[in-house]
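User: We ran a pulldown and think these components assemble together. Before we commit to crystallization trials, I'd like a predicted model of the whole complex to look at. Sequences follow.
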Amino acid sequence: MSKILIRGAKVLGGEPQDVLIDGETIAEVGTGLSAEGAEVVEADGRVLLPGLVDLHTHLREPGREDSETVLTGTRAAASGGYTAVFAMANTFPVADTAGVVEQVYRLGREHGYCDVQPIGAVTVGLEGKKLAELGAMHESAAGVTVFSDDGKCVDDAVIMRRALEYVKAFGGVVAQHAQEPRLTEGAQMNEGVVSAELGLGGWPAVAEESIIARDVLLAEHVGSRVHICHLSTAGSVEIVRWAKSRGIDVTAEVTPHHLLLTDELVRSYNPVYKVNPPLRTERDVLALREALADGTIDIVATDHAPHPHEDKDCEWAAAAMGMVGLETALSVVQQTMVETGLLDWAGVADRMSLKPAEIGRAQGHGRPVSAGEPANLTLVDTAYRGEVDPAGFASRSRNTPYEGRELPGRVTHTWLRGRATLVDGKLA
Amino acid sequence: MQRHLISAADLTRDDAVLILDTAEEMARVADRPIKKLPTLRGRTVVNLFFEDSTRTRISFEAAEKRLSADVINFTAKGSSVSKGESLKDTAQTLEAMGVDAVVIRHGASGAPYRLATSGWIDAAVINAGDGTHQHPTQALLDAFTMRRRLVGRDEGLGQDLSGRRITLVGDILHSRVARSNVDLLHTLGAEVTLVAPPTLVPVGVESWPCEVSYDLDRTLSKSDAVMLLRVQRERMNAAFFPTEREYSRRYGLDGDRMAKMPEHAIVMHPGPMVRGMEITAEVADSERCTAIEQVTNGVSIRMAVLYLLLGGNEPAATHTRTEEK
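Assistant: Here's a predicted model for the assembly, 753 residues in total across the polymer chains.
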C-alpha cells in the first residue's frame, strides 16, 4: 500500500500539520513533512479527526434489505466520516446467535467501507423473556461486546439484572433502550403541550427516566457496566449525572436529532419527524447539549434508522419510527455543539470517536491522531455550508428530517486503515 | 376562508361567524317542501370514511345532496393504519376520478392534514373527525346550537358567543370534540371550562385557552351551556376511573345537578348518549337538552361549509372565495 500525505490539516481543530500515512498506519505527524513517494491530499485548513465511530446504527441486513444493506449502510457511514459502526440487533432474523452476528461482521469486512461491529440481542428474538447466547456471540468471529434489544426495552427487571451480571464475564455492556412499555402504549410523540393539541398519543419523559433510574441502580447493585441509548430528556440527564457522581459505571448517548429538533416540528404531521424516543422540547434539547458538553452524556450516536419511502409517505400513526443519520451527524454536531461554543473539535473527536470506541471496545478505532496509530481518519471541510439534499445520500433510504435545511460542514475524505473510502466527497 | 377545513383552530372569528350565518340560510332550506338547492350541481364530493360513523356520514351526505352534489361514499374501515399507503393510494384514486372535495373521517390524528398538505390530491379536504385531534364541523354545529339558544335565531346573525360560559364534561383526553370546541368557542369569545377526572385531562392542557376543573358541582351555576362528552366503557378497564358508578356520581348529569344550572342554561351532547352513566334519561329528555337539535343543525352547518369551500357565489353574496395555488 502506498503513502498518503495529508498536508496542512488542522488535527483535532489545532494548528495545521501534515499527516503521513504509510500503509495501514499513521507514520508521522508534523510540519513540512516530505511528500516524496506519497500521494498528496491538500487539506487546506480542513479539520482532521480520528475516524468516527457510531455505537448505534441500523443496517437492516438481514431481513430488510429494501431499507438498507450492510453495503449501502457502510457506504453511508464512510460518507459521513465513520470508520466503524455498531450494527443493531433488530434484524430479521434477530442478531441473537453467533451465526447472524458473524454474517453481519463478515459482510462489513468484505465490503471494506467501514468496520461493522455487530450488537447482539440481549434476549431471544428481542422478546425480553430469555437471555440470548451472549457468550457465544462474544466468542464468535464477530467478538460481540455490546448487547441491546434496541427498539424494545429490556423491561423485566430480573432479565435486565441477569444480563448486566452475565456480560461481566467478558467485559460486555448492555445498551438499554429505556422505554417503560406500559407508560408508552399507543405513544406517537412526546407527551406535552404539542401532543395535547395534536391529539397524538403521548410518550412521557418519565417512561424513559424511570427505566434509566432503575437500570443505574441495578448496575450499581451488581457492579456492572450499563449504557443508555439515545437519552432524550432533561430528567434523564439529571439521573445519569447523579449516577455518575455516585460512581456507577454508566455511559449514555444522545442522537444528533435530539440535539437539534423539537416536538414543535410534529405540528406538520410529517412522519419524517416520527422517531423513538420522540423529539422532545427546547428545554430538553438545551439540557442534552449541556450534558454532552460537560461529559454527563458520553457520546453522540446516530440511531441511523433507514426506512423505505412508503413507510414514511403516509399518515403519522401508520408511519415507521426513525430517521437516517450517518451522513448528517457531524454537520448537526458542528451546528449544535461547535458553533455554539459548547465543544471544540477535540471534544467532538472524543464524543464521536474515542469514547464510543472505548464503550464498544472497538479495536483500532477511536485512537489519537499520532504516529504508530491505525490510519482511521476523516477530513472535514468545516467552512462548508449547504442545504441537505437526500438525493445524494449513499444510504438506501432517504428519511432525513433535514431535507432542504442548511447545515454546516462536509466530510471530504475518509480513510479506513490507510485506504481511502471517501475522496473529495465521493465514495471510493 | 381557507381552502380546506382541517381544524377549528384554523378559523378566524369572521370565518366562523360567516359559517354560522350561512348555516342559518341553509336551515331555511330545510323548512321548504323541497329541501334542495342547485348550488353544487356537477360537483363531486366523496365521503371517505376509514372509521365507522354512520351519524356523521349521513349528516354530510344529507348536506351534500341538499346542495345537489354528486355523492360517493367510500368506506375503508380498518384498512389504513395497518397499511399506511392506502390513504395515499385511495386519495389518488379519487383524485383521478375528478373529485372536488373529500370529506374524511380517519382514526389517525393528522390524517386529513396529511391529505390536504402532502400534495397527494388537489381536492378540498373537510375533516369529519380525525383520531383524538379535531372534528371541526361538530364544533361549528355546537356553536350554532348555542348561538340559537343563547343569543337567538335572528338576533344571532353576525354575532359570536362573547361572554357566554360553556362547560365541557367528560373524556377530554380522547375527545376531538373537546379540542375542536375549545378552539372554536375561544375564537367566538366564549369562556370555556373543562371538567373531568384528572386522568381524562391531557398533559399539556395548560396551554389551552380554557379553565380546567375536577369539580362539576362548582361549575354548574356559572354555566350557560353544559356539554357532556361520551365516555367509552373501555376507558374503565384502562384505569381512567374506578367504576362506572363512581364516574356517574362525580361527573354524571342528573336532574338535581341540572337544577343548579341557571334557568336559561342548556344541556348539550354530541351523541350517542350513554344514558344512566353520563346523563340520566330525565335530563336527556328534558326541554333543555339540545341533542336532537344538534343533529338537525349538523346538516345546516355542513351545507354551509361545503358551500363556502366549494364556492357557490350566491346566495351568500358577501363571501369571496380565495383560491390557494
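The CA atoms of residues 31 and 228 of chain A lie 41 Å apart. That may be worth checking against your pulldown data before setting up trials.

User: Thanks, that helps.
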